Amino acid sequence: MQHIVNMLSQQAQQQLDQVALKIWRNQAWQCFTWKDFSQQWTLVAKGLISLGHTEQQAVAIMSPNMPEWTIADLGILAARGCVVPIYPTNTVEQSQYIIEDANCQILFVGQEEQIQIGLELLNTGRINTLICFEDSHYTELENVLSWQQLLELGEQQDKQILEQRSERITMNDLATLIYTSGTTGEPKGVMLDHANFAAAFEMHDQRLEVNFDDVSLSFLPLSHVFERAWTYYILYRGASNIYLEDPALIQEALPRSQPTLMCSVPRLYEKIHAAILQKVAAAPKTKQLLFSWAMNIAQQRLLLKQANKTPNTLFTLRFALANKLVLTKLRAIFGPARLLPCSGARLADDINSFFQSLDVPINYGYGMTESTATVSCYSEMQKTIGSIGQPLEALQIKISEQGEILIKGDTVMRGYYNKPQATAETIVDGWLHTGDAGKLDTEGNLVLTERIKELMKTSGGKYIAPQRVEGALIREPLFEQVAIIADARHFVSALIVPAFEALEMHAKQLGIKWQHRNELLENAEIKSLIQARLKQVQTNLARFEQVKQFTLLPREFCMKQGELTPTLKLRRAVIESRFAEQISAMYAEPKTA
């Protein structure tokens, strides 16, 4: 086992002039070779020492994705520090909690929004030094440094001090504190050490193939364990990383970046799936029939593949035609991608099946911050729809009597920072209690059933898994977001945020006139349309799980209002409080949808 800085130093020596990090800036590519990368992280480490950073002291990073994020990350680790990522969308209060809990004295920030939060934390004495990745006139202020000024400080520092620190680095050193966003309660700092990451690399080497010529597009926030651990891994394997500062621009970035690898959450595939279906619905009847025929052939081929059966000659010819006329064009959305890890939430089976039948290389899996990301994922040979893949070979998995997934292995966290009781409740006799219910099938695949801690109990005593119901409803292209209400209620209801672009298109087709969005949502024909679509997507749900009443909302749930976590999970308590009036109205006069 080796320290991540040592691993990447070896890559830098082998690939000096090859591109390691890359970003599209000012309408051109800005590239950092491996030589640039290693030189800059060394200067960051020396610069931090000049600023008074001590060994194992926590340093925070609050920024959108950019090469400087990773360079700062490696610099902190090289100085034998501990990295504390903060979501760039966090509020001042959320950021302050993390800064104080982790006792960070130095904060790296990215863009104007984060700079303003950093200045407030500096002015109130929560931090001593603010370092800006991007040029800013604020660097004229006391204790505010530009990126370039930090590098210049590093050049002036004696390299011997850094070398002495490097000699004292151990695999038990704390590498990072990652604060879980939490749908309820205050965030908890997950303690991951260098041994956790080294073990994760070894486990992934047994499951995945990542090479020098691979290019990964980083658009999920680096403040989340999924993208961060993946970035470490692909750099350890010698691949290069492209950074996307604004994840909303992912569809523009794909053709320009041409990545072979890309981490994502299911929401991206849900949106692409909905966009494809919407485009097909607006196409001439002949094209709709051609699409349906081609997808039917593709789905049949997937079933044959899953059953290890060889298709006959006639079927092979039909597939070749379907592929040429339709499937190749759909697959082209993802360019040369050959491995697309997907996790962070449930990927609906029908959407998974849709893309697998197109041969889009989605590698669906399951993981947690507390387990250094991956617990299970698909292998190249086995992609069983309905499962979240096979557990990584070096992990022990068992299912408790209550049906909870328990994990033991070298990637399990040390515990929660400053929270011994929470640690003791989560890690019992060495087993990490995930809070997720699941089972192992006959082939050893892990199957997720529900989130134990999120189960809702109706007043009639029925248990509802909200994520399962929401996952069924969100397949409807007219629904952008759905929040289920059921706890202590006598039936299930839903707050639905429509996909407004699609809804407005339908409204025009129906000849409905409106001036404001609220008028559209109150329209009887629109409500009937939503009701009909709701009925269609609930056919596989038990009667007690089905939504009986709904309310259409005029805006999306968002992080700034506190309704979503930074990983886009619903904060149910906040949503129920904020929309209490609408929820009460749904239960005032029970109706059936």
From TrEMBL:
Spans through the membrane: none
Pfam families: AMP-binding, AMP-binding_C_3
Domain annotation AMP-dependent synthetase/ligase: ranges: 9-417
InterPro entries noted in UniProt: AMP-binding, AMP-binding_CS, AMP-dep_synth/lig_dom, ANL_N_sf
Domain of life of the organism encoding this protein: Bacteria
UniProt KW Glycoprotein keyword: no
Protein name in UniProt: Long-chain fatty acid--CoA ligase
Organism in which the protein naturally occurs: Agarivorans aestuarii
Lineage: Bacteria, Pseudomonadati, Pseudomonadota, Gammaproteobacteria, Alteromonadales
